[in-house]
Design brief:
The protein has 92 residues and is an alpha+beta fold. The protein has a single domain, classed as Alpha-Beta Plaits (2-Layer Sandwich), CATH 3.30.70. The protein contains 3 helices and 4 strands, in the order βαββαβα. β2 and β3 form a beta hairpin.
């Protein structure tokens, strides 16, 4: 499984509609409205790199109200659960 994080700049008055349209796309697992330089963060989870291109370039970028995107490919995941397991002494 490949995960991509996509930063999305959207038309300000359409952020909720843009977020919902992106969340409905196949391959998009989550969309977050955020503060800061970008408006939305979309998490893409697909099987291969070609699918990332299909989701982002062919569909997400064409959602009405999307002004620009920046895509980051994740190569390793860390979570609180993973870290707790790694440092656990097995003394439960």
């Amino acid at each position: 499984m490949i995960t991509a994080i996509v930063f999305v700049n959207a038309e300000v008055d359409r952020i909720p509609e843009v977020a919902e349209a992106i969340a409905a796309l196949e391959g998009v697992s989550e969309v977050y409205s955020v503060t800061g330089q970008i408006d939305l963060i979309a998490l893409i989870r697909v099987r291969d790199h070609d699918e990332i291109a299909a989701v982002v370039a062919d569909r997400l970028n064409k959602v009405d109200g999307v002004r620009s995107t920046e895509t980051h490919i994740a190569f390793r995941a860390y979570s609180r659960h993973d870290l707790e397991s790694a440092f656990s002494l097995g003394l439960d």
